[in-house]
Amino acid sequence: MESLITANIRSRPTRTFISVLAVALGVVLMLIIGGITSGTLNDYVGRTMGVGADFILQASGSSVLYAFSGAALPAKLANKLLEVPGIYAVAPVLAKFNAADFGLVFGIDLESYDKLPGRLQIISGTESLKDDEVIVDDLFAKSHKVGPGSPLIILNHKFTISGICRPGAVVRVFVPLKTLQEMNTTPSMATIMFIKVAPDASAEAVEKELRSTYPDYTLTSTRDEASLLSGTRMPMLKEFRFTVVLVSMLLSFMVILLAMYTTIFERTREIGILKSLGASRRFIVIMILKESVMISSLGVLLGIGISEIIRKAIIAAFPTLQVAMALGDVFNGCILGLIGGTMGALYPAYKAARMDPVKALSYE
């Protein structure tokens, strides 16, 4: 049977290539779009944990994906939080999304922010953040070809780079909190509060006190990645991922369906001959399904290869953009691509198995 299947595939190279390419495009769609989403999410979580804070305090219903949170906290709340027993440091931060670089800008008070374990580590320039000064990380500086003293337009405002910090900070661009508040027309407001517990204090006790004292705020623990992931309430994220997977599977399904359905008509006499020689319905169905699985497998392999090339190209062109492609994502892409292709062959296989051998042999 295998030689018959491969012969059928080789006899129609153009149609086979188009079918393989369509399945590959579905896999690419799943891996690349899903990879950008997952990569951005994982990058946010990893960087947030790198700050070294024990808790994040935000307005009720906010997400740790700060681009979706507004300036809803009074910055003076930081002083009140410092009065809570066991709290060592509180850093108020105003987050603003910069569409030009597709990234976040943090407005920080450098003195309070540097009390956190993930303080800015300056590798060139000076550790200064006043008025119109800005600190960027090394990767941002290299991708934009700038250095200390260089002018930089951020959110339509002209800044001067005072220092370059090591990559790994929660964001790549830091400006003075007061300056960003004025630019955002939200004086004395912040987006989040990074809270650090004193070394000799109990984090559990502090958390209990904070939840009791500030029940109207969202308090997120940064002690483990699972806690942060549970707080990543990106609007419509699940629906978006589901739509990408659905479109990808439909693409594979429809192309294989059309290809195999057309093939059945072209091979009507062949199927009639097989049935007249004693081939069962089961034999015909398995033959059609194996052919579709072979085409889908080739498409999946091609899709994985193309996805890896696109992933590397995106990272090379946009170094600050993360595209995750874990083995689990690749495995899911393979399974979904094969399922979509196989399902597309079910109806053509059923139709071929139901053919009357007498009518099939007389088909012109």
General description of the model:
This protein is α+β, with helices and mostly antiparallel strands and 364 residues long. It has two domains: 2-41 and 237-361, no CATH class; 53-221, no CATH class. It contains 13 helices and twelve strands. The strands form two sheets. Strands 1, 3, 4, 5, 6, 7, 8, 9, 11 and 12 form a ten-stranded mixed β-sheet that branches. A two-stranded antiparallel ribbon has the order 2-10. Helix 1 (2-10) crosses helix 11 (281-317), helix 2 (13-50) runs antiparallel to helix 9 (237-266) and helix 11 packs antiparallel against helix 12. The longest helix has 38 residues, at 13-50.
Brief overview:
The chain is of the alpha+beta class and 364 residues long. It has helices spanning 2-10, 13-50, 77-81, 110-113, 138-144, 177-183, 203-213, 225-230, 237-266, 268-276, 281-317, 327-353, 357-361, and strands spanning 55-59, 73-74, 87-98, 103-108, 122-125, 133-137, 151-154, 157-165, 173-176, 189-190, 192-197, 217-221.
Overall mean pLDDT stands at 79
Terminal Cα separation, in Å?
25 Å
Helix content range:
40-55%
Tally of DSSP helical segments: 13
Strand portion, in percent? 15-25%
Order of helices and strands: HHEEHEEHEEHEEEHEEHEHHHHHH
> What is the number of E strands?
12
* Class by SSE composition: alpha+beta
Report on the biggest sheet.
10 strands, mixed
Gross morphology: elongated
Low-confidence stretches: none
Q: What Rg do the Cα atoms give?
A: 29 Å
Domains (count): 2
* Quaternary structure classification: single chain
What labels would you give this structure?
single chain, 364 residues, alpha+beta, 2 domains, ten-stranded mixed β-sheet, two-stranded antiparallel ribbon, elongated
